[in-house]
Amino acid sequence: MNTLHHAAGGLAALGVIALPLVVHAQSNLADPTPPSVELNPMVVTAALVPRTADQSLASVTVIDEATLQRQNPASLTDVLRGQPGVDVTTQGSFGKQSSVFIRGTGSNANVLLIDGIRLRSATTGAASWEFLDPRLFERVEIVRGPRGSLYGADAVGGVIQLFTPKGGDGEPTLRFSVGGGSFETQRYSASLSGAEGGTRYHVAASRFDTQGAPVRRGGDDKGYDNTSGLLRVSHTYDSGAELGVLALRSRGSTEFDASGPAEDDFVQQVAGVYAELPITALWNSRLTLSEARDERDTLAPTYRSLFETRTRTVQWKNTLAFGLHELILGAEYRKDDLGDSQTSRLAFDEESRDNRAVFAQGLLDFQPLTTQLSLRHDHNQAFGDELTGSLALGYELDAHHIARASYGTAFRAPTFNELYFPFAGSSNPDLDAETSESIEVGIRGQHDAWFWDLAAYQTQVDELIALDADFRPVNVNKARIRGAELSIGADVADWTLGAALTYSDPEDRDTGHQLARRATHSLRLDIDRELGNGSAGASWIAQSHRYNDAANQQRLPGYGIVNLRAGWQLAPQWSLRATLENVMDKQYVTAQGTDFDTATFESMPFDYINAGRTALVSIRFGQ
Fold it and tell me: What predicted TM-score, i.e. pTM, was given to this entire model?
């Protein structure tokens, strides 16, 4: 489908659907219907402390518990696909390798956090998004734009944080669900949460097992299984001090294609303990110790590899209040360790590195002007010192509109693969970090029953790491990424609307080509309606073409898919939910692979296809 037709059709549909809702919203401002979604939610990822979305001075998207329950996604990438400024590519469905691009930056140039603990592979630099079960989380925050001055390396495009349930407020509450559907898929989950005295707890487990779908035309089904567990416990003392622990682990296997049958056995794990102490009425101090693991054991026809990356972090954060102003001071120590990682029985030259950092942020409120100023210094054992900073200004135009402007710097750390990969000539220990500068302007309208947010930005990346003629990583390229994002949300009567329109121009400045695997136009439209004891909804996601390669020779066409969903309240504690993904059964492609013909010594690209029409049904006990 033509890109311009996608965008024009999407804008037309958005206008037709949004206009009556907006008119209805404006007519009900004096007596709005209680919202079923958060239209101006509290966000903590943008500034390290709670701020409402309109006060955060950032482009933010929050996917709350109600939305996650309605959409009942099979994977985390289903949640993220088409969100403002977010692009997702996959090498097939159900646990297959996935990349998440934020504002045109690479998957290793953004940060994934789980309750504040960073999770990613130190060898690739990217997170394994495909191995996290969305049923374990109650909330997703997406912050777009550089956050290097708060989170350090790789927060160039933005930060995505997943939040687990804190626990109940009283008697133990049991929930469980059982479901299944297409491709011999089975889904199970259960949780127990509650509180007693000052202690809150949440325990959960989930299982996902599927025969899977082919990842290439004419190929065999590629299965996937994932067993996950979660424990979160916290205790609040009479003094206000709080002590808590978190443990999350996902383990399973996924089949893929590598010139023949291949399989990954994986582990994704985060564990942490924190202590928070109100030293005075104006000074709060928090100490967090954590470990994250990304492990992958790969068996393919021509190679065997084992990657075991562990990241241990100690962070001390202090928040001081001065009237309407806040000051945040902190220090962080992080160590990456590869353990027994090796590929084809070759070990890495270096197996660990550490990073020391200090950071400070000032949140100043001079109503109607607000200011956020932050600065961070990182010293890394592998690539030296990096200083990042940001400045954001917000101005309250009236009771419903806030304008904002910001400037920020960030950097992407060279990965262990780029610095020390064992194969001769395939790494470069002298690499510098990629650095970036970003500017953004935006305006947000916040009303009782609806909101809208419009932002435009430009990011300049220097010292971009690319492969030279000998396939060795070097600092040579520059990139410029320009874009604009419009998001709208409304909750009127029994209707809930969410819409996101994204334009991006990710350009390699040395060649003038579009950066690989990034679409330039994206539209997502979500509509849901409450119907007595039931509900019905639909999502439409459309994206323009993209190129699989840096030379822009392998063009992947754009696509549009429609997803349907419905739910029924069968009894006070029992509900049924059904989803029908990719209703039109389209074979859409967001990435290509390459076969190598040993007889002719030629490379032959092939499409990674996504699953066609997929039906899932589940029955749930518990609210």
Answer: 0.92
Report which of 541, 532, 623, 535 is spatially closest to residue 574, judged by C-alpha positions: 623
For 193-215, give the DSSP string: EEEETTEEEEEEEEEEEEEEEES
In CATH, the architecture of 3-530+548-557 is: Beta Barrel (2.40)
Confidence at residue 601, expressed as pLDDT on a 0 to 100 scale = 66
Sole residue written with tokens 């010192």 = 385
Task: Please write the tens of the pLDDT for every residue from 325-344.
Answer: 999 999 999 999 998 888 87
Residue with tokens 């609210």: 623
All structural domains of the chain with their residue ranges: 3-530+548-557
Whole-angstrom distance, CA of residue 449 vs CA of residue 494: 12
β pairing state of 534-543 and 559-571: antiparallel
Helix and strand numbers (H, E) in the chain are 5, 37
CA distance 130 to 611: 14
Rounded to whole angstroms, the Cα distance separating 125 from 515 reads: 18
Residue 34 DSSP symbol: P
Backbone angles phi, psi at 4, to 5 degrees: -65, -35
CA dist 511 and 106 (Å) reads 18
Contact yes or no for 180/72 (Cβ under 8 A): no
**Pairing of β 473-492 and β 495-508:** antiparallel
- In whole angstroms, give the CA distance from residue 287 to residue 546: 44
Task: Please list, in sequence order, all residues whose beta carbon lies within 8 angstroms of the beta carbon of residue 267, skipping any fewer than 6 positions away.
Answer: 249, 250, 251, 293, 294, 295, 296
Q: Half-sphere exposure of 551 toward its Cβ, with a 13 Å CA cutoff?
A: 3
**Residues 57 and 372: beta-carbon distance below 8 Å:** yes
What tokens appear for 198 in the block? 């000052």
User: Hey, what's the torsion of the CAs at 521, 106, 298, 130, to 10 degrees?
Assistant: -50
Query: Which residues are within 8 A (CB) of 70 and not within 5 positions of it... i.e. 6 or more apart?
Result: 528, 535, 537, 565, 567
Sign of the alpha-carbon torsion through 504, 160, 150, 97: negative
Residue ranges of the chain whose pLDDT lies below 50: 1-35
Residue 148 · residue 90 · CB < 8 Å: no
Tokens standing for 584? 């039109």
Q: Write down the H helix ranges in 99-245.
A: 148-151
Compute the distance between CA of residue 135 and CA of residue 162 in angstroms, rounded to an integer. 11
Looking at residue 15, its pLDDT comes to: 40
pLDDT in tens, 455-504: 999 999 999 898 877 778 998 889 999 999 999 999 998 999 999 999 99
- The residue type found at 49 is V
- Nearest 5°: the CA angle 528, 532, 534 is 55
Cα–Cα nearest to 121, from 289, 269, 274, 272: 269
